[in-house]
Amino acid sequence: MKIEPVATERLLLHPLTVAEGERVAAREPLPGDRWGDGYPGVGDLASVGAFLRRCAEDGDPGAFRTYQIRLAESGLVVGGIGFHGPPGPDGVVTVGYGVVPGERGRGYASEALAAVIGIAREAGAAVLRGDADPANVPSHRVMERAGMRRVGEGDGLVRYLVDLARQDPTRPKLT
Fold this sequence. Notes:
The structure is a single chain. The protein is α+β, with helices and mostly antiparallel strands. It has one domain (6-163): 3-Layer(aba) Sandwich (Aminopeptidase). The chain is built from 4 helices and 8 strands, in the order ββααβββαβαββ. The chain has helices spanning 18-25, 42-58, 108-122, 137-145; strands at residues 6-7, 11-15, 66-71, 77-83, 92-99, 127-132, 149-154, 157-163. Strands 1-2-3-4-5-6-8-7 form an 8-stranded mixed sheet. Strand 4 and strand 5 (92-99) form a beta hairpin.
């Protein structure tokens, strides 16, 4: 299934194909690929590995896949963002993301997450959920900036979510 990239003000969310995912997992960029220092990180490798397993077991996940976060101007890959799988029967889908250390603090994760919220809404998910380590305050801020609200803690994680049916898609996502 062909999924189109999603452009934001400064970013391009590039949907990985299986072949691209295999190259990321092997840490083998093609000539001309521009990967930021530290990409792929541990989280990227875990996300891509899960994406490849889902594709092998269940087929193409459509919009609920892994995306590279690329700088629109240069094409530099600065991280990844993606879904842990398609929504469950309750319509809930979980997202994870990461940005390479040298590019953190510039709002890229919040910008990418706001775009992924839109992808999830358009693809029919009812709720988008995210989790973060209690000590990872920057990740808490990313989710809050993208319009998610803190809903509690459990299993050593702080939980955030956004009700996609209730969130106004026209409201500014970043402040």
